[in-house]
TrEMBL record:
InterPro entries documented for this protein: B-gal_1-like, BetaGal1-like_ABD1, Galactose-bd-like_sf, GH, Gly_Hdrlase_35_cat, Glycoside_Hdrlase_35
Protein name: Galactosidase, beta 1-like
Active-site residues, Swiss-Prot/TrEMBL: 183 (proton donor), 263 (nucleophile)
Organism of origin: Cyprinus carpio
Membership in a protein family: Belongs to the glycosyl hydrolase 35 family.
Lineage: Eukaryota, Metazoa, Chordata, Craniata, Vertebrata
Length: 648
């Protein structure tokens, strides 16, 4: 019996120790002393935003380590709903979408997490992270107490927040706080019932102990509509703002507790047509030091921006529609390719004054390699748009009056073909008009397979057409990214209203979803549909080429001098990547690694209007950003060598 008694006594002695260890993990707000408390001790976070959805999984660890070595003790993470539930009811948390793997890497690195699960996130991301299938519900009011919207968000959070609960700091994970909605005060609805619903939903799935907070812009209107009792109110602002005035505004809505700037802007986004945005390094580092001296917790937005792979770029609509470019470099401390910049070193020097910096060298820039030139062959024009649809369209064509938009045809991204015939002879140039600005977003018009011109949302709503009665009129409409901010986020794509030719309303449309990506992945390029060489011509086309391996699996940039708006699909094994390009775009090593193993990478180039047709393009170890100014003019506005950075 003696050994049994000993075992029981030992067990009884160990139980209190286990409970003490569990109870010792806490993260809370000390309203009396105006600070956070981590495990009972005052805590100030110095955080940076990073978007796992814009960085290849293979590089998550590298980026997180660089953030940790800069001196950050936390990261801020958006969760794009549409990235994980692109199709309704189909949830994807694998591969580059493996959020829990990302959280675990951050935990292993020593970084706490501020989670921003939305449901709306903005982030210059397609439709602000909301899935396009929501628009299948007629007249749905997004970001409101609309019944259909609440039903969808409740299902989504039932999946997501259940996964997140074990990752809360109190439960042994590294999530210290969770944001409810995102800058809701900037939205027209100002629906407190909606915010209460989200508050209750978050508490249901995450419990009572986690800090729930809001973030809003630096105006009274935004703070009034974006805040709610029970949610800690934080503010966001950049280098053009008076710090004292901004925090006084936060204090009006949150009299006690820590000062928090949830989005301190280290840079800014780029739209097509804009010069590359930048924010002065001296201003960023100086203002960061001032806020930290006040005891404020600060998140730097962004710390690394990354790339809008695939169709995930967003858009803005203030006075007109403006699409966000592929690069989300953001002039951040880590470049689009994840390389340390002078801004990062300046920020690290500031942080040294407030906390100990980890010992050891900053991880270097990833190696870059110029793989050389690739010769291209034309494989597609207007003539075989219907052929692509036969190969790849998941649905039969729709025949519609009035015209249907993308979501009605169950295609959310890419392009669609609208086809009808001319109702009468049009011997003289006759206006083809979109009277209600119904082109969302860019339309390429052809008659009998001959390209006639371009129509575009807000800017080019009229063009002239000639032809004979019965001639085939094709209009390929491109989705350039759904609006991610403001009151226009119900952003349907396609032809949203009738087109008028002279005095005739065009009818009897056949509508084909053009799933070009799937066609390419299914071997369409190898199926013998090639065209004849590189002859000149206008309109959207596809070109194909092969990059032979050098045996090196390094990062690279696709460089397209002389081209304009381009979409690239890199095909290897059964995987492919899609980019929309300015002049150069970052290519991840996964693609280069495939070249090393397979000996080559097959890819195609889809481009719209251009200055001239080059016979090739290059892979470069230098980033040159070329932003499209209009349909026929280009300007180089950024040129940055990525391999000669001096470390200290």
């Amino acid at each position: 019996m003696k050994p049994l008694i000993t075992f029981v006594l030992l067990s009884l002695c160990l139980l209190p120790i286990i409970f003490v260890l569990a109870d010792s993990r806490s993260f809370s707000i000390d309203y009396k002393n105006n600070c956070f408390r981590k495990d009972g001790k005052p805590f100030q976070y110095i955080s940076g935003s990073i978007h796992y959805s814009r960085i290849p999984r293979e590089y998550w660890k590298d980026r997180l380590l660089k953030m940790y070595m800069t001196g950050l003790n936390a990261i801020q993470v958006y969760v794009p709903w549409n990235f994980h539930e692109t199709l309704q009811g189909v949830f994807n948390f694998a591969g580059d979408r493996d959020l829990e793997y990302f959280l675990n890497l951050a935990n292993q690195t020593g970084l706490l997490v501020i989670l921003r699960p939305g449901p709306y996130i903005c982030a210059e991301w397609e439709m602000g992270g909301l899935p396009a299938w929501l628009l299948q519900k007629p007249n749905i009011i997004l970001r409101s107490a609309d019944t259909e919207y609440l039903k969808a968000t409740s299902v989504w959070f039932g999946v997501l927040l259940t996964k997140m609960r074990p990752w809360l700091y109190q439960n042994g994970g590294n999530i210290i706080s969770v944001q409810v909605e995102n800058e809701y005060g900037s939205y027209f609805a100002c629906d407190y019932n909606y915010m209460r619903h989200l508050h209750n939903l978050f508490r249901l799935f995450l419990g009572e102990d986690v800090i729930l907070f809001t973030t809003d812009g630096n105006t009274d209107k935004e703070m009034i509509c974006g805040t709610l009792e029970g949610l800690y109110a934080t503010i966001d602002f950049g280098t053009d703002t008076n710090i004292t005035a901004a925090f006084i505004r936060q204090r009006r809505f949150e009299p006690k507790g820590p000062l928090v700037n949830s989005e301190f802007y280290t840079g800014w986004l780029d739209h097509w047509g804009d010069k590359h945005a930048s924010v002065d390094t001296v201003k960023v580092s100086k203002m960061l030091g001032e806020m930290l001296s006040m005891g404020a917790s600060v998140n730097m937005y962004m710390f690394e921006g990354g790339t809008n792979f695939g169709y995930w770029n967003g858009a803005d609509h203030d006075t007109r529609f403006r699409s966000v470019v592929t690069s989300y470099d953001y002039n951040a401390p880590l470049s689009e390719a994840g390389d340390p910049t002078d801004k990062l070193l300046a920020i690290r020097d500031v942080i040294k004054n407030f906390r100990d910096i980890p010992v050891g060298p900053m991880p270097p820039a990833t190696p870059k390699f110029a793989y050389g030139f690739v010769t291209l062959q034309k494989v597609w024009t207007f003539h075989i748009a219907k052929l692509i649809c036969k190969i790849s369209c998941p649905y039969k064509p729709s025949y519609s009056v009035p015209i249907l938009c993308y979501v009605n045809c169950v295609q959310y991204y890419g392009s669609m073909l609208y086809r009808t015939t001319l109702p009468r002879n049009v011997p003289e140039p006759t206006p083809l008009i979109s009277p209600l600005n119904g082109i969302h977003d860019r339309a390429y018009v052809s008659v009998n397979g001959v390209y006639k011109g371009l129509m575009e949302r807000d800017t080019a709503l009229v063009m002239n057409v000639t032809g004979q009665q019965g001639d085939q009129l094709d209009i390929i409409v491109e989705n350039m990214g759904r609006v991610n901010f403001g009151s226009y986020i119900n952003d349907n794509k396609g032809l949203l209203g009738n087109l008028i030719l002279g005095n005739d309303v065009l009818t009897d449309w056949s509508i084909y979803p053009l799933d070009i990506d799937t066609a390419v992945a299914n071997g369409w390029l190898q199926a013998g549909h090639s065209g004849s060489g590189m002859e000149a011509g206008d309109g959207p086309m596809i070109y194909s080429g092969t990059l032979k391996s050098t045996g090196l699996a390094w990062d690279t940039f696709v460089k397209l001098n002389g081209w304009t708006k381009v979409r690239c699909i890199f095909l290897y094994y059964e995987e492919y990547l899609v980019f929309v390009i300015q002049e150069t775009v970052f290519v991840q090593p996964k693609t280069a690694a495939a070249a090393k193993q397979c000996g080559r990478i097959n890819f195609n180039i889809i481009f719209t209007k251009r200055l001239q047709i080059p016979h090739s393009f290059a892979f470069s170890n230098t980033k040159h950003t070329m932003i499209l100014l209009n349909s026929s003019e280009l300007a180089v506005i950024f040129n940055e060598p990525l391999y000669n950075f001096k470390y200290r």
